Amino acid sequence: MLNEKHILIGITGGIAAYKTAELTRELVKKGASVKVIMTKNATEFITPLTLQTLSRHPVYMDMYSLSGDFSISHISLAQEADLVVIAPATANVIGKIAVGIADDLLTTSVMATRAPVLICPSMNTQMYENPIVQGNLEKLAAQGYLIVDPSHGELACGVEGPGRLPDVSEIVDVVETILTPKDLTGEHVLVTAGPTQEAFDPVRFITNHSSGKMGYAVAVMARRRGADVTLISGPTTLAAPRGVRCVSVKSAREMRDAVMEHLEKATVVIKAAAVADYRPASRSDSKIKKSEGTLNMSLERNPDIIAEIGKNKGQRVLIGFAMETDNLFENAAEKLTRKNMDLIIANDLNQEGAGFQTDTNVITMLDPNGGKETLPLMDKMDVADRILDRVKKIIEKRKR
Ligand code: PMT
Fold first, then answer.
1. Phi, psi dihedral angles at 390 (to 5 degrees)
2. 205: helix, strand or coil
3. CA 322 / ligand 1 centre spacing (Å)
4. Domain of 61: which CATH number?
5. Packing angle between helix 213-224 and helix 380-399, nearest 10 degrees?
6. C-beta of 306 in contact with ligand 1 (< 6 A)
7. What is the CB neighbour count within 10 angstroms for residue 166?
8. Global pTM value
9. Is 49 helix (H, G, I), strand (E, B) or coil?
10. 31 vs 50: CA distance, rounded Å
11. Is 211 close to ligand 1, i.e. is its CB under 6 Å away?
């Protein structure tokens, strides 16, 4: 997703510098060309060789080194960057940038770049809370610098509070968000994800294998593309995505109520949740004791949420998923028409790497005109992006 993006990472002298090695690795893995500038103090915490190996480029430290590579200067590093990330950013470098001091390769590069600059402060809590540091951060934010708030926790110095460099995955998400074109700005995307749980006593329920990964990927990608996103999720172990309005539900009926509550302002609805079609007809208030012989349970139908939206969808774009083990395309096409969807995403439980729990999926998108687009095995984030490309096309067609 970061293919052909040039990212310049600046590392300053903080204990969290070791995490920047992982950050570099992740960004390279996602296809970015990453170059690293280290301040002299940063080299006390982590070696340039580590960053050189992970970035696959020389590490730049000195403005005046006679490296023989005349094309590399603070100006060329600054100019080729699509994004500059300073992680960890110490109080010292934050202060220097805030007042316009450019006395080393990193600060001169920041001064010379036209790319967005993302600052990831990381330091001792008292230093971070110092009004001078806070004032400098406010000043930088007001000038368009992007700041990732440090996370809370126990710091290397033993103090508990804000100051930790956030998890690498969070910084990568911020980087990807900055570098993603905002072509869904103005859209309100309502996504459902995960399984539902249908309880029949206080300790047991009927559910399915959905992990929520597919729906969460759609929510994250829609937010990266600039949409306002509401995610209604059944029980999962996934962390609530940053910048997304999250509503947790358990049963299909709770999911239905939450969807209806948030439906009005939604311009796009994407139903990736695996909603239980049936629930136990009765729920015991106490644990059902086991006894000899079989236990019979009668089930009753749950509301079909997407069908209800389909009956009164107005101008909304309505996308559903179909999970089948047999006659995938016939069944998916039937659901597409019957539930009045604009697109249905068919995923086949029998295919390796598709469907529940995996990080990948194999999908075919069917539209009401008989169009059929099959994608190869892909990461669920890429699948989500391709689904949103179709959403964008439907919206554009409606506007014409
Ligand atoms: O969560 P993961 O582990 O990443 O797995 C992803 C997934 C396989 C769950 C997902 O990609 C998927 O296929 N979700 C839909 C599964 C499903 O319930 O399919 P269905 O054919 O039963 O339902 C068709 C559509 O109607 C779905 O959009 C579903 O959300 C919706 N539905 C179904 C029943 C119901 N009572 N209400 C609904 O709104």
1. -70, -40
2. strand
3. 6
4. 3.40.50.1950
5. 50
6. yes
7. 22
8. 0.94
9. helix
10. 19
11. yes
Among the listed residues 237, 214, 222, 218, the one whose alpha carbon sits nearest the alpha carbon of residue 349: 214
Q: Are 156 and 195 in contact (CB under 8 A)?
A: no
Domain hosting 200: range is 188-278+297-399
d(CA 147, CA 167): 15
Task: Tell me which of 236, 275, 302, 358 to substitute to probe ligand 1's pocket, judged by most ligand atoms within 8 Å of the beta carbon.
Answer: 275
The token duo for 334 is: 């039937």
**Cα 390 vs. chain centroid, distance in angstroms?**
19
Identify the H or E element spanning 19: helix 17-29
User: Is 213 a pocket residue for ligand 1 (Cβ < 6 Å)?
Assistant: yes
Residue 283 covered by a domain:
no
Q: Which of 130, 162, 179 is the last residue of a domain?
A: 179
Whether the Cβ atoms of residue 198 and residue 205 lie closer than 8 Å to each other = yes
Domain contains 175: yes
Identify the CA nearest to 36 among candidates 71, 94, 96, 85: 85
Contact 192, 273 (CB under 8 A): yes
DSSP 165: P
pLDDT in tens, the chain (400 residues): 799 999 999 999 999 999 999 999 999 999 999 999 999 999 999 999 999 999 999 999 987 765 555 555 668 899 999 999 999 999 999 999 999 999 999 999 999 999 999 999 999 999 999 999 999 999 999 999 999 999 998 877 777 899 999 999 999 999 999 999 999 999 999 999 999 999 999 999 999 999 999 999 999 999 999 999 999 999 999 999 999 999 999 999 999 999 999 999 999 999 999 999 999 999 999 999 999 999 999 999 999 999 999 999 999 999 999 999 999 999 999 999 999 999 999 998 889 999 999 999 999 999 999 999 999 999 999 999 999 999 999 999 998 8
Domain-terminating residue out of 179, 204, 233: 179
